């Protein structure tokens, strides 16, 4: 099993989500994240003074899939999240030791996603 | 006798008077005078309600300009201040502000019905109408006090509010109100009275100077200035709340300026109210324009500060100037507030711009009377504005004298309020302390001073709320325990 963590622009989320659902990957999580990278911060004007916000809001997408599905997920994210401008984000692939569905106690690959049968 | 019957009786008297004028005219005149007084007091009552509503305006304005961790304290402060200033005004403040010698009033302590106010021929006994006016005066005092705290947000000890509110409501504000409106020194300066219709100096400058004294002893918020002294923005958490506050203040101001006619005669309050609206509008335009030109951004809060500055600017002239002068006064006030906020920002941490919007614009408004006051409207003994000395028929020397008298009111108000306020805050600082600890400031005044958050969900994660009695709703469904799963795999 692999966990795919992707830091993406907010606007890229919806197309990724709907395509993954269509392909049989409904189980995804998002976290509102703030981070910095090559993209510059935002300068806020306020009553004649400024404040520079060096971290910018991004969305962190988390998906756990069977090893064989990893490339399909990465390719889907790349296709929708890439604008070509600085600030598109990054994808990390992390090995996952075990997956357990809380409702039933089942374990293993079949827990990660509900595949269309 | 019921109210209805009373009305019928006076109607009948009126009819009788029409039928046989010679017989009942004296009675009718008396009746009409009483009715006119009652009508006046109804208007003052409406105005009083509007001015008290301004407390909500100050509350939202200050909370919007604060961070989320300091939202609740602003609510507690408004309640506590209004409560203390009410008792202080009733017990002492009203008396100090009223009839007396050149420096302070002497009658009306622990204000009560039928109490004798004044001495000799001018003495009167407190009636319900005097009570209405006393309450109206309290509403003004409470506004002035609310202004003080704008400079102190996010770092002051709550106890300072309590102590200063008592001193301010009993002594500081009443002394200034007495000087201008209570027959004190400024009511007759070499034959000329200071003209301050609703209190650009008496209410607004007084509040702002109190705020300045507090700020000088308090210092800036942690993190406001970088090591090299560069000011940094500490954005308030809600511009919508700021907007709501400004709109409430704006509407309340119709009671503030309109009500300062104290009467319905000739519907004159309409003039004061139109002037108020024109100046507020021009204030928004002036401030928005200038802040955009200077920073290339239309600062949301500054547009609101422009409205307040326009309103403060027209507060003294509202009943003394022609309609054409009101937009000029408001526009200049809008410029003044932007220049002052941008200037003060470099050295003084005034989170809501009270020094600029109430202090600087208050000075401008007081002087504006000396520039634009119309010969049609000036009070007995006063000269019109210098505009009429230059372009009109008024004597230039006399109008210049009036402008000087207006300037004197500014200087005297500033000095008296500053000295008394600085002394009060210095005593507070030396005894109970004026500023919270650094750790408390970091945590926010809500949790450190009140033990609770203004916005709990922003600080307490949901799982930390106790969930006593929670049981899974899946009772009866076979659930594989880790032990069993291991056994199956084996």
Q: Give the largest interface.
A: A-B, 13 and 24 residues
How many domains would you count in the coordinates of chain A?
Answer: 1
End-to-end separation of chain A in angstroms reads 20 Å
Quaternary state of the chains: heterodimer
Helix content of chain B: 55-70%
In percent, how much strand structure appears in the residues of chain B? under 5%
Question: Tell me about the biggest sheet of chain B?
Answer: 2 strands, antiparallel
Q: Low-confidence segments of chain A, ≥5 residues, pLDDT <50?
A: none
CATH architecture annotation name of chain B? Orthogonal Bundle
Put simply, the count of helices of chain B is 17
Give a count of the beta strands of chain A, DSSP E runs of length 2 or more: 6
- Neighbour order of strands in the largest sheet of chain B: 1-2
H/E order of the elements of chain B? HHHEEHHHHHHHHHHHHHH
Describe this structure in words.
Chain A has 117 residues and is α+β, with helices and mostly antiparallel strands. Chain A has 3 helices and 6 strands. Chain B has one domain (37-450): Ammonium transporter AmtB like domains (Ammonium transporter fold), CATH 1.10.3430.10. Chain B is built from 17 helices and 2 strands. A two-stranded antiparallel sheet of chain B has the order 1-2. The radius of gyration of chain B is 27 Å and the shape is globular. The model of chain B is unreliable at 1-5 and 484-490 (pLDDT under 50). The interface between A and B is medium-sized, with 13 and 24 residues.
